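Project outcomes to date are best conveyed with an example. Our students and postdoctoral researchers have been running inverse folding experiments weekly, and each run begins with a structure described purely in tokens. The record below, which covers 587 residues, was selected by the lab manager from last quarter's runs and is presented without edits.
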């Protein structure tokens, strides 16, 4: 190539027309000229390569600096030797401020131990490859990864995924290439997912407990009914001064206490059959405070701040008393054994829905259905609770003070749930606790005055009753009770059997008592079937379930009364006399 260029130059030169140089001197000159041309070509190529290299370096540094992740080179002492602009932007500093600074300076104090363990693992993984890395520096060591929090210059914290590999600096000393990826959004999404899963777990747990407790309450009430009925029959046959009578009475009292636990279970589920009416929340609290104060320990100071007039809510007076007493008791128990005692404060107020707390809210998933709410707040200066304890505080038999002694606050949440409200908890370990009960406030509703109940006339026992129950033991004790109080009984084990009995004794049977849960025809279907034979035949529906659950749903025919198991002989007689008495009046 060089020779061809030289021949072209000679051909154009005026020194020689034939394009040739003669003699030894000419030969040497020609060789030198060829060499010079070769050097010029090489220089030209080098300049072109340099231009391309500079362009490639600019492209590389553009990509390096503007990469979506931060890049740093860190020496063995943890000092930042090189950094791209992204890493500087992540930390809120200039690149010059990063150089020769320890990367640990930008790691959150709480995560310093995690970074120390990360570096330790990295060194242990890199150490065996030290000789290889020095021999082949282009081969990076094994990657090490971890997630930790870093701090920007302005104090803002953020999550990064840190990945490092071994390398060497320009002097051959060991160094680390570090990649910083901002994963704050991912961590926030993970936290939300965990929170959502925990919320769903609590909802599923509550639903599972509801199903279990409802079934248990029903089964236990059936068995309590059998035991209570037999005890009452035994008691009626004992002389007034007989010693066994006292034992039977104690057994009956135990049955009633056990049945009360069942009622609390149903209250925990929000399945209350009590009447709700408009009540002044402050007035109800004010009426119950003297009784609550009488059982409050001397080392507790009660502070009362009840607005007047108070917000009106749809609730039950006895349940308000239960909620207030439970929350105050929970407060002073948190200060049991504390030197100098403490304070429990009770406050009523009205708040708009926008100011209702959204954290530690029970029942989970509650959504406000009103614009303004009445609030009953009970706070204490006790030991407080951790977040884990708050999540369990409304579980049955759970307590942060000692072994769980009962349903406790679980009943409170059930009552408030039945009111259409919710309860929130604000607490911290060592900083006391505050329980806020939020119930929809009634507007422009007149409070009901206490009225003297009007006694209804009854009817003496007597007549024929059709008894329907698939459980033989329960059916037998109910039949015995009916006969004992003076009724004739036709007993059936199913709806179909009852249908046949009523066909044969249509004029004799005056009313019927049927169980709710039965195979084949259930209680509702039995009522409908029997009234096809004898319309308007008085019916009593009985069940171990709570009245609200038993009477829910749309049905063609409804009973005149509901009788929840276990019921006493007196309850049975009163219901029958009332139903038959109303029937006699209608006729």
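After processing, the design step wrote out the following sequence:
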């Amino acid at each position: 190539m060089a020779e061809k260029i030289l021949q072209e130059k000679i051909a154009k030169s005026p020194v020689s027309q034939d394009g040739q140089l003669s003699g030894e001197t000419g030969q040497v000159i020609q060789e030198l000229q060829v060499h010079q041309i070769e050097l010029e070509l090489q220089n030209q190529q080098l300049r072109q390569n340099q231009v391309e290299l500079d362009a490639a370096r600019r492209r590389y540094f553009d990509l390096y600096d503007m990469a979506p992740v931060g890049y740093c080179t860190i020496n063995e002492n943890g000092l930042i030797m090189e950094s791209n602009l992204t890493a500087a932007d992540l930390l809120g500093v200039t690149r010059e401020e990063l150089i020769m600074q320890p990367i640990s300076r930008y790691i959150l104090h709480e995560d310093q131990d995690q970074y120390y363990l990360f570096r330790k693992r990295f060194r242990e993984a890199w150490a065996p490859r030290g000789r290889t890395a020095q021999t082949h520096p282009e081969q990076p060591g094994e990657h090490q990864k971890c997630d930790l929090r870093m701090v920007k210059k302005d104090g803002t914290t953020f999550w990064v995924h840190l990945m490092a590999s071994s390398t060497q600096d320009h002097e051959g000393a060991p160094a680390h290439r570090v990649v910083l990826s901002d994963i704050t959004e991912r961590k926030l999404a993970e936290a939300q997912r965990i929170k959502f899963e925990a919320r769903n777990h609590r909802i599923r747990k509550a639903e599972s407990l509801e199903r279990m407790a409802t079934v248990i309450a029903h089964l236990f009430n059936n068995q309590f009914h059998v035991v209570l009925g037999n005890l009452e029959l035994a008691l009626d046959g004992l002389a007034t001064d007989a010693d066994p009578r006292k034992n039977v009475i104690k057994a009956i009292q135990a049955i009633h206490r056990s049945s009360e636990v069942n009622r609390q279970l149903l209250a925990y589920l929000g399945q209350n059959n009590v009447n709700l009416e408009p009540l002044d929340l402050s007035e109800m609290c004010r009426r119950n405070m003297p009784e609550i104060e009488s059982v409050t320990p001397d080392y507790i100071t009660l502070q009362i701040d009840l607005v007047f007039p108070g917000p009106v809510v749809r609730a039950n007076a006895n349940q308000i008393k239960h909620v207030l007493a439970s929350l105050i008791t929970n407060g002073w128990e948190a200060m049991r054994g504390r030197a100098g005692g403490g304070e429990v404060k009770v406050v009523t107020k009205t708040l708009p829905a926008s100011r209702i707390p959204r954290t530690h809210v029970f029942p989970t998933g509650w959504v406000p259905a009103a614009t303004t709410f009445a609030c009953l707040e009970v706070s204490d200066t006790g030991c407080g609770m951790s977040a884990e304890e708050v999540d369990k505080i409304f579980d049955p038999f759970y307590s942060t003070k000692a072994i769980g002694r009962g349903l406790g606050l679980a009943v409170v949440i059930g009552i408030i749930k039945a009111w259409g409200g919710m309860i929130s908890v604000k607490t911290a370990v060592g900083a006391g606790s505050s329980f806020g009960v939020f119930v929809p406030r009634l507007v422009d509703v007149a409070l009901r005055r206490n009225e003297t109940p009007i006694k209804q006339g009854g009817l003496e026992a007597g007549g024929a009753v059709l008894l329907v129950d698939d459980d033989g033991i329960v059916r037998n004790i109910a039949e015995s009770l009916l006969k004992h109080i003076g009724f004739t009984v036709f007993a059936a084990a199913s709806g179909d059997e009852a249908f046949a009995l009523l066909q044969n004794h249509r004029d004799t049977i005056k009313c019927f008592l049927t169980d709710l849960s039965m195979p084949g025809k259930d209680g509702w279907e039995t009522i409908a079937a029997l009234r096809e034979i004898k319309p308007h035949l008085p019916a009593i529906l009985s069940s171990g379930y709570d009245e609200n659950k038993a009477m829910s749903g749309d049905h063609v025919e409804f009973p005149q009364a509901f009788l929840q198991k276990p019921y006493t002989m007196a309850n049975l007689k009163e219901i029958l006399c009332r139903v038959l008495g109303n029937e006699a009046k209608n006729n």
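The domain at 70-182 is CATH 3.30.450.20 (Beta-Lactamase). Confidence is low (pLDDT under 50) at residues 129-141, 402-406, 449-459. The training component of this project remains on track.
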